[in-house]
Each structure stands twice: as C-alpha cells, then as structure tokens.
Design goal:
By secondary structure, this protein is an alpha+beta fold. Helix content is about 35%, strand content about 30%.
Amino acid sequence: MFSNITQHISTTEYQGLEIFEVAGTFHYALLKLQRKQGELELSGAWSSTALEDIATHIDAKKPLFLQINTGRVLNKQLDGDRPALAEQWVKKAFPNLDLQQFNYQVIDNPKIKLVSITKRSVVKEHLAELKKLGFVPAGVSIGVAGLSPSLGFMQPPIRGSNFSIREEEDLRWTLSLGEPLVSEQIDVRGLQMPSRHLLSFSQLLGHIQGMEAPSNLKEVNGELHNGFKNRRFFQKGLQWGLGFLLALLLVNFLVFSHYRSKTIAGDGPIDPDQQTELLERIRERVSGKEKKLQALLGSSNTHTTPYLDKIGAGLPESILLDALAYQPLTRPVQPDKPISTDADVLVISGQTNDKEAFAAWTEQLESMDWVKDLEIERYEYLSKTVDNFSLKIYCDAIGQTK
C-alpha cells in the first residue's frame, strides 16, 4: 500500500482533520496514517459533530493537518483553456475578488480543474478554535481543491465527505457539491478508508510526497510549520540537556575512578590508614558530585521549565531556534579536570528573517523578572533574508527574582 511513495518519509505518524458541513451541521473527521515496513497504513479514523469528542483522539506531539471544507468555502469548476497563473484561475472563476481578503487553492488536473476560496478570517477562526483545545496544526488546506494529490490514484465515481466526482460521456469529470452524509468505504490503491476522510488523506499524501498545490496559503503554512518545529524543540530541549549533563558527569566519574585505580595499582601496597584516608576522599568527591547533580536537576525542574515556557510563549513566528543550553560548559571536558559550568546562564541560538521582530523579542526577554541581564553574543547576516544569532541570558540566582 503506497510503498513506492513513502521512501522519503521522516515522520512515521500523521494526522488529518477535515471540518465539513452537511445540511447546515458541522462535522469533524480525523484520520491517522502511519508507516510500517515502508508502507503507508491506516491507524485510526473517527468522525463526530462535536470537536471536543474528536480532540480526545488527537496527539498534540504529532503533526496535524487541517482541511476546511464548510459552507463558507466556495468551490467552482473551470472549463476551457487553463490560465498561466493560479491568480488568473481565481479571477476567471470569481471576477473582481480582492485577494488580500481571501485564501485560494487550485486543482490542476487533466480531467478536472477547479478553484476553492474562503475568507482569510474563516481560516483564522478555525485555527483559533483548535488552539483553545491545545492544538496548533502544522498545515492547512481549503475546499475540494485539497483533493489534488490523490486524483492520480483514483477513477470516478469518487465519493468524499460532502461532494462527489463523476465522469461524463465526453470523459470529462464533473464535481457535485452538497452531497448527503453517507458511510461508504473507498479503496485508494489498496488502502481502505471511509469516504468522509478522503480529503484528509489527500492532504497528508501531498505533504508526504512534497506536492504543493497552487495557492496563496504558503505564508500561513510556513508560520504553522515553523511554530510546530519550535514547540517540539522546547519540549525536547530540556530533556536532552539534562541527559547530556548527566552523561558528562558519569563519564567524568568513570575516568576519575579508572585513573585512581591505576595509580593505586602502580604505587604498590598501602597501609590501612592510607586506605581509609583514600576511601574517605573518594566518598567526599562522589558525594560532592551527587549534590551538584541534584542541585542542577532540581533547579532545572523547578525554575528552568517555566523560564523556557515563558520564552516559548512569546517567540515570534519569524524566529526559528536551533539550540538551547542551560548552564553551558565554560571549557571542554578533560579527563583530569572537573566539569565546570556557567551557573544561572541560558544560551539560545537560531535564525530570524525579521530584524524588528528580533529586536522586540530581545526587549521582551530582557524585561522578564527572572532575567538579570541579556547579551547578544553573535548576530551574523547569513543571506539577504536570514540572519544567525546567539543570545546569552543571565538569570537571577535560583529561587530569586528581581
């Protein structure tokens, strides 16, 4: 099942949510796909008229793609010659339309051509509705135009959530809208699923294949994708940082123990008093390292997590973070020297394409009550649109604020 189109998948689980309307009632259809042994398989499909019911099946840690197909999305099929640009398609289907107020998406298929449009405010409303429940999609698509990636694998009659496509006598495909709600199984190259999940499947398939339909949703989808990556970075960053620090301390202790064992073996027999004194010194060293580790882990869990949450909550969409280090090392780890860290310091690095937003963000960070000082260590111009940066934030002592 789709084994020939899944070789470039980096994530193994995907979620697609379609919001569609039938007879004035909103319906929500959630589809989950996963890759197993190189094949794309269905792992779950749910539908309901209540978004809260569907929300219980959504995994916020996995990418979610939203498909909006309500009565506030207009779909219009085109006949005749194909215009050169997508905007010309829109103007041909909906003359005198102000594209600053609307989002559009186009199907460009030899058998059928159509345009889907909706107001930008409609997209924002549905995104806000999901955000209230704690979910932010990694991408969004609108109308029947989201069907484009899967058309090459299907033949009419094609049945979807509230639409159908049939073939006429002249072999042209015709779109029918406002279809009644039915429960029908469809087959897409061996993958079985309910027909009301077809649009979500098509959007996920397009994302996996890297197919981008003609539309003016690139800016919206770019912000959503970067936001998803930033949230995942903050969720994993602290765990990785603490694990790395623990590994360094463990390596330092093992190297020290090995060195001491070699030294003792080379010095020959030691009298009982010397052995007692040596063991006491080793206990003191181990105890000291345990106390430092407990202090680092305790302070990170109690204070660093809310600091990272505050940084992440105010992060502009134009900034993409690459790395974060809490209490970074002041020098490289050496076998014969203790590990030294820069206490109460956060180092953040990343990229930005908006200098003004970056300046406002740094001012916002500097005004936080737990920030003693903020230093811009590095700001490099990588290209005309992207700059690299590195910040060093000096925190107040653990447990204290300004």
